[in-house]
Predict the 3D structure of the following.
Amino acid sequence: MSTIDTGLSLIRNASQRVSKANGWMGNAFKSWMPTGLYARALLIMIVPMVVLQTVVAFVFMERHWNTVTRRLSAAVVQDIAALIDVYKTYPQDKDRAQVRRIAQRLQLVVDFLPAGDMPPPGPKPFFSLLDQTLSVQLGRQIGRPFWIDTVGRSNLVEIRVQLDDAIMRIFALRSAAYASNSEIFIFWMLGTSTILLIVAVLFLRNQIKPILRLADAAESFGKGREAPNFRPRGAREVRRAAQAFLEMKARIERTIEQRTAMLAGVSHDLRTILTRFKLELALLGEGPEIDAMRKDVDEMSMMLEDYLAFARGDSGEIAQPTDMAMALEELRNDAERHGHTATVAFHGLPVVTVKPASFKRCLGNLVSNAARHANTISITGHRDHRYLTVTVDDDGPGIPVAMREEVFKPFLRLDDARNQDEGGTGLGLAIARDIARSHGGDIMLGDSPMGGLRATVRVPV
């Protein structure tokens, strides 16, 4: 392998490592980020503002605050050094009146204490910029032992300098040695930022509301419900999306109405012909052949009703609050009237918003399918804050696992499976799943603890 190939291999390996690290960091960052649009928009506003405020505060404190404080402290220390020079130059000033008079003009209060040891160091404030600056300037300009206290008196700074025969105590105004207006700047900066952030949050909430309304309207439409008060609002892009949703909803409803009207016409024509057949059979009299033809005509009528029900779905019905516990009790009574043993149990709040007739047909198809191949049926309902779940268990022969999705196909009739409609069309489970999905849910088949089949209907509430 040549040197060039080796270099290219190293570059590829390095790029792969960088790509993996980038992917890991990206996934970690996504896991930390909030999932909601409102929270993400707030982060988009807050993070740049916080970064900007931090940079401005750092630059201001580093450049302005430190520089001004350093210069003010240097000026105060220069005045103290000048007073010490006066004290040394004029020893004839026994009562130090001259030094005190000069100090008063410099806005300083000077006092002299007997020679002795300095007090122990006092407590330092959390942010000791003034202590640090004064200590540096005193050590640089005076070069004598000193002691400072910036905590004891809020508006004064006490400085003690050890001289040859005494200790000079100086009281200086804190504002003369410290840039005291910096806190005001930070206060105004944070205050205005907070006000702007509150205004931005209120404005953002008003911009998010139309998107939430659009999501609620789409969810309601997916569940087969209406959103009567929905109309396009908000920003131009949101109004455009809402208008597109309304147009799509109108096209779907128009297609369903056209299909329903066509099926109504077909149903009317076919029922007219079947009625004519029944009348002609009634005029022919009695006989085995006539009874067989009557049975065929009745079966054709039932098949026609199943075909139309499957094609029509649950169009036209309005979703409304329905007592599911009572609906399940009616299914149990129907099963017992046909000679089956059935039990019902419901847990949770029973009132659920569904299309009553179509949803009852969905559950009725499952119960009738179980009753056709089993002796005992158990119906259980459960409602929580998200879903309504209804299970239909039986002790029948069940359906093989490999065929549990196939049986939902329209017109499918299995020779040995339990869901073939004896004399029917094989549309019972297909109609049931179609109704469940029109409510935003689905139907799953599984093993029942009773030994047969379990059909589970789950729809959002």
About this structure: Residues 37-89 form the longest helix (53 residues). The first strand starts at residue 108 and ends at 114. The chain is about 60% helix and 15% strand.
